[in-house]
């Protein structure tokens, strides 16, 4: 038993030497096409198994999941009624004999995608990461780590505001007209709203990505800043189906605050880039000649000769 730690240490050293030798033989981590296909197949199989496990959990806990989905409608007071129990006002309906089964399948798919998201996101990342450089990997970690929480915040705000939307939209029903709300249409509306809110919160991250790629500079951002803020509130008004100013201000204000944070990051990045790599043409007038480096010019002439 006393020799066990030494054996473990020896095995670790042998493993490190093997990995180091493999990196020396193939420093760029290249793989044949068939190996890429086999790895892709392995990743897809793991993603499928994870999705199947999540869907199984969705079938088992269907009642709890469905209660979460219908809660925005049931919590809204529509023409004095609430609770999704009043026919013709706020009750969900199914049309065909197979619709109840399809409903369980759709809810199971939604639950499966959400529960298995850490696994299939990691599988996608593990397949793409070997082809990235160290700097690209670092920024990918940052963007991926920021995109998921931002998307989750947008979905959460959407879910909290759906009750107001239901109250307004179904409250527009004229007197004498009944609301027969189909389950498929209701679920499509909820999913579309959540997707719109989630993507709206990804706009600041898109701004930072464009800046890192050298497409959007802070100078250009400052010129279009007011237009961007107006566009953010315009998108918030379009994503919010009800003219409720509170919901629109919550979404638009949160996105505008994130845009301001993105502007600060863009400004800091451009400032640091200017300090490390100063522009030799900065500060020159249009009719002023740029300075010529004679050493570089002589080297260039020697190369031509």
Account of the 3D structure:
This protein is mostly helical and 305 residues long. 73% of the residues lie in helices and 1% in strands. It has a two-stranded parallel ribbon with strand order 1-2. Helix 2 packs across helix 4, helix 2 runs antiparallel to helix 5 and helix 3 packs across helix 6. The radius of gyration is 28 Å and the shape is flat. The termini are far apart. The model has no long low-confidence stretch (mean pLDDT 77).
Secondary structure blueprint with pairings:
Blueprint: H1 4-25, H2 33-60, H3 62-75, E1 92-93, H4 99-115, H5 117-128, H6 134-171, E2 181-182, H7 183-200, H8 203-212, H9 218-223, H10 225-239, H11 245-276, H12 294-304
């Amino acid at each position: 038993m006393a020799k066990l730690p030494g054996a473990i240490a020896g095995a670790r050293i042998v493993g490190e030497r093997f990995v180091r030798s493999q990196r020396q033989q193939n420093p760029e981590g290249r793989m044949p096409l068939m190996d890429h296909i086999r790895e892709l197949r392995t990743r897809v199989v793991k993603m499928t198994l994870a999705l199947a496990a999540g869907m199984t959990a969705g079938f088992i806990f269907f009642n709890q999941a469905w209660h979460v989905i219908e809660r925005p409608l049931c919590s809204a007071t529509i023409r004095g009624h609430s609770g999704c129990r009043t026919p013709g006002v706020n009750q969900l309906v199914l049309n065909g004999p197979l619709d109840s089964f399809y409903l369980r399948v759709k809810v199971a798919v939604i639950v499966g995608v959400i529960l298995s998201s850490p696994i299939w996101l990691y599988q996608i990342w593990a397949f793409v990461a070997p082809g990235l450089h160290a700097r690209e990997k670092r920024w990918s970690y940052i963007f991926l780590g920021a995109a998921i929480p931002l998307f989750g915040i947008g979905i959460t705000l959407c879910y909290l505001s759906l009750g107001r939307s239901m109250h307004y939209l179904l409250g527009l029903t004229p007197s004498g007209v009944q609301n027969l709300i189909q389950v498929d249409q209701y679920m499509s509306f909820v999913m579309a709203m959540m997707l719109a809110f989630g993507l709206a919160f990804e706009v600041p991250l898109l701004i930072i990505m464009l800046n890192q790629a050298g497409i959007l500079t802070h100078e250009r951002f400052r010129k279009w800043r007011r237009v961007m803020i107006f566009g953010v509130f315009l998108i918030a008004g379009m994503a919010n189906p009800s003219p409720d100013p509170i919901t629109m201000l919550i979404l638009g204000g949160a996105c505008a605050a994130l845009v301001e944070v993105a502007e600060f990051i863009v400004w800091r990045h451009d400032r640091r880039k200017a300090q490390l790599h100063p522009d030799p043409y900065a500060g020159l007038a249009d009719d002023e000649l740029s300075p010529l480096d004679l050493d570089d010019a002589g080297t260039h002439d020697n190369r031509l000769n």
